[in-house]
Amino acid sequence: MEQGAKTVSWWAKIFRKKAKLTYWLKEQVFVVEVTDFKEVAPDCIVFKDYYTMKNIMVKYNNTITYVLEELK
Question: Which sign does the torsion angle of CA 51, 20, 57, 4 carry?
Answer without folding.
Answer: positive
